[in-house]
Write a structure and sequence with these properties.
The chain is of the alpha/beta class. Helix content is 36%, strand content 20%.
Length: 251
């Protein structure tokens, strides 16, 4: 498991920086109704996407929340007074506080279906009736672009997919959230190179291959034998799903 306190120091640079943040924010905003004013970014990380949501012409009032102190410090620099440190499974906000909630690259971090359901439930709780929740789905599988790197990574133990689209939709329905729209955006700067993938392997990016696992060493050796060690392969394409909160509570 990654240490997100340490990750916060390099998070933006290693994950596409402003170009990826712009693509993500644009896709999120495209799924939000024009009537939205108060937005919560649950799992805001460094706030690089959150800040862009707040620059929309609608004049959105944006609040960010994240559990990692390092992430919150960086987000607070971008959005002074609008970021809180908290567990997204227990959001520190009253019921029905926001017109919209987004959770970009959050659900894939859940340890399993129960935790994913809890995260969805909290997003639903703080959402006003008629409000919109937007979330990424299938993040892990999105990175598989059919490259030579992916062919090698396919030999590793399979990773859980707590943010699978079907599972997320089922969790959402149980909390009175009805499926809405969908959008896709390119993960700018996220194309894997062999060398970068080896570095990710060494620092625990792949949850089923912790550092020191002999299988990780074998995969690293095969990656090191690939040509064009520093050439990024194609960038992933991420998927967003939106859901609308019913005005009547689920039965």
């Amino acid at each position: 498991m990654l240490d997100y306190e340490e990750e916060s120091r390099h998070y933006d640079a290693w994950r596409g920086g402003e170009p990826r943040a712009e693509a993500a924010a644009r896709a999120v905003l495209g799924l939000l109704p024009e009537t939205v004013r108060d937005v919560l970014d649950a799992g805001c990380g460094t706030g690089i996407v959150t800040r862009r949501l707040g620059t929309d012409a609608r004049g959105l009032r944006v609040t960010g929340v994240d559990q990692a102190a390092g992430m919150v410090r960086r987000a607070a620099e971008r959005l002074p007074g609008a970021v809180a440190r908290a567990d997204c499974r227990r959001l520190p906000f009253r019921d029905e506080a926001f017109d919209a909630v987004c959770s970009v690259w959050l659900l894939h971090l859940a340890t399993g279906a129960e935790e994913a359901a809890a995260l969805v439930g909290e997003c639903a709780r703080v959402l006003r009736p008629g409000g919109t929740w937007v979330t990424t789905v299938d993040k892990g599988p999105s990175h598989n672009v059919g490259s030579d790197i992916d062919a090698i990574l396919a030999t590793r133990p399979p990773s859980p997919v707590p943010d699978g689209a079907a599972a997320v939709t089922a969790h959402a329905r149980r909390h009175g959230l009805r499926p809405g729209g969908q959008a896709r955006f390119v993960g700018r700067g996220q194309g894997r190179s062999p060398r970068r993938t080896i570095d990710d392997l060494r620092r625990g990016w792949f949850v089923t291959l912790p550092p020191g696992d002999p299988r990780a060493d074998g995969i690293a050796e095969r990656l090191a034998a690939l040509p064009d060690q520093h050439r990024p392969r194609p960038e992933p394409v991420f998927t967003l799903r939106s859901f609308r909160k019913a005005h009547d509570p689920p039965p």
